[in-house]
Amino acid sequence: MKKISSLIMILLLLCNSIITVFPTKTSAETLDNVIKNIYVTKENGTKPIDNGYSMSQTVRVNVDWEIENGSAKSGDTFSFNLPKILIINKQLDFDIKDPNGDVIAKGHADRWGHKVTVTFTDYVEKHSNIKGTMFILSKFDRDIITDGGDYTLVFTDDNTVSFEEDIHVNPSGFNNPDEKLSKYGYVDPNDDTLINWIVRVNVAGIDMMNAVATDELSPGHTLIKDSIKIYKVKWEIENGKLIQNEKTDVTDTTEIMFSLPNKFTINFGNITDGYGYYISYHSKIDGNDYNDFSNHFILNANDTDHSSIGNAHRETSGGGDGDGENSSVEIMKVDSNDGHALVGAEFDVIRTLDNKLVGHLMTDSDGKGSLSKLPFGNYELVETKAPDGYKLDQTPVKFTTDKTHKVIQLKIDNRLLNGSVILTKIDKESKETLAGAEFKLVTEQGKEIKENVVTDKKGKLVVEKLVPGNYQFIETKAPKGYALDKTPVAFEIKAGETSKAGTVTKENKLETGTFEL
């Protein structure tokens, strides 16, 4: 039993020793040191005067990035975190493309996690010196920034490397003491399917008789009826700030009528004594097909219509561009003897950095083969299949590509496989084999290849290491008692058929006057 176990162990070791190990695909990784800078601008990419932003302004977050040669593969990522005072209106997916429209990476902005993640495609495995820019559009979180002032934006990557920028947000300010009606809306910071609407009535504090307001929503969102809140206030302006004094909830005592699902009317009656109203409510966005929303609010008082259209935008955009360089290898496969082109040679292209198989090529009828989109680096060509009739040569052919050597051209030759032939000498009548016959071997053109080749006791002779071509055996000495026959015995060694020896037969007649016992 011990001997059997030992034998099994030996067989297992032998099997393991002949298994070809191929490089395994590694899992995706988070890349370091990809982000070179993060900074903010206005939506059009320019800096505001004195670095000041309005509280309602769209802020463009810009990212400069770059990856080192050979450091990234398909599926690898980098990411960064937005400061809490910046928000994006919805989940966002976008592409980063090169000038030809090829996708370098795919970006995803997570609205809830305040995080942007970029995932590279296999573009990074085919290019070098890859760098670019990207952006996303964001807004200030009005729940955090309630007034103007100086703020520091801190962006961090996955390795807590921070990029900081100081900005100034201008006070909102209010400078219209004669305002009769105003309305605005914004997408809720905590729910991108919800829009918050605000209406101000009679900041001017004038008497408004028989005041009736009508509001109608545009397509794409639906009024949430029970979200309507109406407050009676006295508006006051202090140092550019609009303040609500004597704020009282009068929702339950104010007449609200719904004529359509998205249209309602509020009857205020007579507005006197310097009072006005603050109205808030919500609408629900209908699916993902809409990004721009409006309300048309009309206030009729003193037989005059006052109109205000409020708008809200859910669209958050992002994008980016980049570029990279790559290289290629071109081979010419030829016969080592006369240099003619060889079809059907196949090669693996191996990157020496990580022993990774990056491509495969095969020569065409002109003996040419190529592989493009190689990142700069060191490579090896390894022949996996020789042209028919030629010897496989698995000696690696090394080459290097870089910025100044983007196209590598190589000429690689192959040697024909050698063939062999067996000649058998026999008696013409009895068919018995004959020893002692001598021959010379010549080419079809008469060039002597070998001489004094003699049949053995079995009547056979063997000639090896013959390249494909046409040959002839010519008898130079007959077996004893037999007539010499110089008639050539022609044969061919064919390319691709060299693994098995060719066979020919030469007959001889007895000389006249001789006999055999």
From TrEMBL:
The UniProt entry lists membrane topology as: Peptidoglycan-anchor
Single GO biological process annotation from the record: cell adhesion
Can you say where in the cell this protein is located? Secreted, Cell wall
Tell me the ranges covered by the SpaA-like prealbumin fold domain, including all copies: 328-414, 419-500
What InterPro entries does the annotation carry? Adhesion_dom_sf, Collagen-bd_dom, Fibrogen-bd_dom1, Ig-like_fold, SDR_Ig, SpaA_PFL_dom_1
Which keywords does the record carry?
Cell wall, Peptidoglycan-anchor, Secreted, Signal
Q: Of which family is this protein a member?
A: Belongs to the serine-aspartate repeat-containing protein (SDr) family.
Name of the protein this chain belongs to? Collagen-binding protein
Which organism is this protein's natural source?
Answer: Bacillus cereus
Give the taxonomic lineage as stored in the record: Bacteria, Bacillati, Bacillota, Bacilli, Bacillales
